[in-house]
Design brief:
It comes from Benzoatithermus flavus. The protein is an alpha/beta fold and 213 residues long. It contains nine helices and seven strands. It has a single domain, classed as P-loop containing nucleotide triphosphate hydrolases (Rossmann fold, 3-Layer(aba) Sandwich). It binds adenosine-5'-triphosphate (ATP) and magnesium ion.
């Protein structure tokens, strides 16, 4: 599976989800490579902040030809996860072309729902070349015990993209892990954040295996 985590909106959780998806896939015993396709290099910074090797390979590839380079890298990995840039540019288009699965993080805010139009339009464009590509929204930073997460799922129904059932909640553990170069799977493997990450990973694998667009 080559999964791109994409949304032109900044700060929605692309890097957080890409890192945790890579970690959850690695925890299942897969050989995983995380490709940092964002010139900001956040995933590379995460790896540099870390003590010891991460449970997956991390490479920086913020280049518009990554759809041609990734298949070569992907040969020796079970899964490749691409952390996308915060804009619609040639890097985002290239990541989209490389991917068989696309994850679009959205925060439970009307601004995020409105901003999703741009990435949905891009996905529709890519569909011409990538007929079998799977794409899903993931709600990130849902506030526990509020209806806001449910509201955003209703608001996202205007798009043809399905929403994965598990949302990632707003949790301090995610922010702390970012600074330490760790993941919630390592910090608190039985905690709620780790459970959400594992559930998300399983749902994505099931959607990908199902192959339904
Ligand atoms: N579920 C969450 N709970 C708490 N903090 C979160 C959560 N998701 C993301 N964050 C924090 O929000 C900030 C932005 O997240 P992240 O860097 O993953 O977004 P991004 O979409 O990759 O941003 P950019 O567009 O700049 O690449 C980070 O500090 C991250 O730790
Ligand atoms: Mg990022």
């Amino acid at each position: 599976m080559i999964t791109a985590v994409l949304n032109q909106k900044g700060g929605v959780g692309k890097t957080t989800i890409a890192l945790h998806l890579a970690a959850a896939l690695a925890a299942r015993g897969a050989k995983v490579m995380l490709v940092d396709a964002d010139p900001q290099g956040s995933a590379l910074d995460w790896a540099a902040a870390r003590e010891g090797e991460p449970p997956f390979a991390v490479i920086g590839l913020p280049r518009p030809n990554l759809h041609r380079e990734i298949p070569r890298h992907a040969e020796t990995y079970d899964h490749v996860v691409i952390d996308g840039p915060p804009r619609v540019n040639e890097l985002a288009r290239s990541a989209l072309l490389a991917a068989d699965t696309v994850v679009v993080p959205v925060q439970p805010s009307p601004y995020d729902v409105w901003a999703a139009r741009e990435i949905v339009a891009l996905l529709r464009e890519a569909h011409v070349f990538k007929e079998r590509q799977i794409a899903r929204f993931v709600v990130n930073r849902k506030i526990v015990n509020t209806a806001i997460g449910r509201d955003v799922v209703e608001a996202l129904a205007e798009f043809e993209l399905p929403v994965l059932p598990t949302a990632l909640c707003q949790r301090v553990a995610f922010a702390e892990c970012a600074a330490q170069g760790r993941t919630v799977l390592e910090v608190d493997p039985q905690g709620p954040a780790a459970r959400e990450v594992r559930a998300l990973c399983e749902e994505l694998l099931a959607a990908s295996a199902g192959g339904q667009a």
